[in-house]
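Record 1 of the preview.
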Amino acid sequence: MGRKNQIGSVILAWIVVQAFANSAAANDRGIVSRIAFGSCARQDKPQPIWETVLAAKPDLFLSLGDNIYGDTQDMAVMKKKYDQLAAIPGWQKLRKACRILATWDDHDYGVNDGGAEYPKKDESQQLFLDFFGIAKDSPRRMQKGVYHAEVFGPPEKRVQVILLDTRYFRSPLKKKAGKRPFGEGPYEPGSDTEATMLGETQWQWLEKQLKVPAQVRILVSSIQVVAQDHGWEKWMNLPHERERLYHLIKDSKATGLVCVSGDRHLAELSMMDAGLGYPLYDITSSGLTEGSPKWRKLEVNRHRVATRNWGNNFGLITIDWDQGDPLLRLQIRDEEGEVTIQEKLSLSLLQPGAIKNKFVAAAVRINNIVMSADLVKKWLNKEVTLEMKVAATGETKKGDLVFLNSALDRTSDDNFTVVLDKKAQASLAKAGIPLPRTHFEGKAIRVVGTLSLFSGRPQIIVAGADRIEISADK
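->
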């Protein structure tokens, strides 16, 4: 083994040991229940949003990248830009108010859309560590790349934050051939299975981190993990690496995991069945100063839950530990602090087994919380508001009952059925909806009714036309 390999092995071994040491030390840190995050902040622009972030009273702030717009190989210029950020009063207040954990993206790394080829990445890394107050004798100074993880809280309320480095090791991306329309991204998924996003050392480190005990895990990626249809930077540009990530999360039996990402100059919540046994959410916040000043046409995102594609923003994850089944809120807030996107999740939903059926079309929400077995038990035989997308329909032979199903497979444990009996069908016909199957199939609907069970699966029997409606897509 060469000397470089020996040094690399020693550093990796230290990182692995430190991961579990951090876990053991987590008891000494307070319970974390409010985690703010954001990305894309130009150091030469006003940054009034920090006052709004502070008003949210975060326990932690996660800087997701593009913390400055360096874009240079001159480290004196890079240092000057960090100094500009350091002088901003709002940033100074944030540093005093809470812990800040950070990774970088392309612009604070040093070059737009940059990867492993950037020649000043080691020098840039040292400036990054300087700015975020990492001790000169920290082993992170010897490590290649800025990836890092920490654990907070006592064993029964433990939060792990894993920050990835998607720049230092990343292979070149595949560009689209020919001229592309204005506003369309330049990249497409590549077929080179030797290309890497994280580099082998970081992959090994991540595998160890995912096995550290924690109830909630925040996986920080500077670029989007779930969204796959746009042509900008994203994990799907290296499809085999995205699949490796999903398999690693599943094989590690890592529970309670939510991704946060930046980069895109918009705010978005995406969700997919990534084969983990529970839904994988990716909440994107961008930018602190670089949000589009005006509304834009939505780009395609087959995994979209909600998008706010204009306006500066930051993200906030809150955890209500006092509930028997802790409740997570995934939020995007604007510069005034208004919540523009929110998803409520019971922690039990983020456990293997929450999704048993590969045909799940979209999340089902009961009283604005994503459905879980515990939630069904809580609201059984009570009036609730249901939101779901109708994936499939059916009816009895005589047509006296019509079924609207949330999953393609009506026998799935994940399926929710809305039942329209003869009375409800007559009421709908009087309201101008004589063919409810055709009218509602493929639509997002909102239903008010009593939650009951049939063969162990949840359902609502609709009382009349005034209890069911098509809801606007988020």
